[in-house]
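Suppose you are handed only these lines of text.
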Amino acid sequence: TQATLANIKKTETNVNAFITVNDDAALAQAKAVDDKGIDATNLFSGIPIAIKDNILTKDILTTAGSKMLSNFKPVFDATATEKLYGQDAIMIGKTNMDEFAMGSTTETSYFNATKNAWDYTKVPGGSSGGSASAVASGEVLAALGTDTGGSIRQPAAFNGIVGLKPTYGRVSRWGLIAFGSSLDQIGQFTRTVRDNAAVLNIIAGHDQRDQTSSQREVPDYTANLTGDIKGMKIALPKEYLGEGISKEVKETILNAAKQFEAMGATVEEVSLPHSKYGVAAYYIIASSEASSNLQRFDGIRYGYRAKDAKNLNDLYVKSRTEGFGDEVKRRIMLGTFSLSAGSYDAFFKKAAQVRTLIVQDFQRVFEKYDLIMGPTTPTVAFNLGAKVEDPAEMYMNDVLTIPVNFAGLPGMSINAGFSEGLPVGMHLIAKHFDEASIYKAAYAFE
Ligand code: GLN
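From them, the structure of the protein bound to glutamine can be written out as follows.
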């Protein structure tokens, strides 16, 4: 823990991956593990792990990247962090993120942008850019993140590491600051596939406090990492290599497909015809859910409270005006509008219908195939600041990841190569609760 803290101190000047480094508390936790004696059978005993700052950590600042929560210390732990502590992992700090997880570059954070671990002039992706950069720059072995439309997989791709969004319901969302509740999922970043599976073993499972968490048993995700994928049936959707996908990304993914075939898997082209409507539908559904979830930040119950309010209504308005950044306000307005009586049928209802079509596309493909592969992102990491002025262009970043959240499927990004020194991510998608197939293929590929 001491060595990790020293390394974080050095590396942070370049990457700014953390909002809070947990110096003294982490050392105290490490000492308690030392006093008890390191348990050699426990992989996590004394291992520092970073947590995205929208996942509650008791008595430790949890800001969700927002001024609104810049003074918020939770009174309880999220289930996922509690489970890691239960294994004697050390909570080394809280990582930077787009405000309330809304963004694709970690630039909407109230706490300054994080940098890509491979090139400090590039974005790290987002919204879990802090967690991805912390792992890729060698600050920590593993970090938790969250994924509503791609926020684990896209930063994993931009930083060349392994990031998994588990099946919706696989990991409890208790203690996660909600964004889009029908889409949100906690997951993990690591440098290797085996480490990734080991973290999922700990954080997965039913939780009475989250009624959407699944009762299904948690298998040992490290058990089938044999390198043998003979006979595996992999689908490659033609839409994932179409318009808007850069030439280098496309070539890298086609090469990866060849590698899978060389290992005895079959790779065949399929179609997911409705995926092109995903981004439009997502920004209505996710924003609608966010407009409801973010009502609780009113200056009374949590966080930031504006000074000099004239009355209660003025206090709400001023606190929200001053406490939220532009992107969060944009989403609240879009969501409130889409849900309003006059617009509901034309916007929210339509988006929900599109979501169903996207879900059915996946169902059809998974009748015949074990896995879907493709690129995680249309391009490699771009320059900091390049897309901040153009929300619509920013939103297109998630065109390949959003459909997976709509369907609640598990998805991983794993490094598939480099283009001009920047990592290219491969996206692997499986059936509900079949993370094991993703791990199997990713391990063979790694
Ligand atoms: N970039 C997407 C958004 O801004 C996804 C964010 C996420 O997955 N939390 O909504």
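What can we learn from it? The first strand starts at residue 18 and ends at 21. The pocket of glutamine is lined by residues 101-104, 127, 147-151, 179, 286, 398 (CB under 6 Å).
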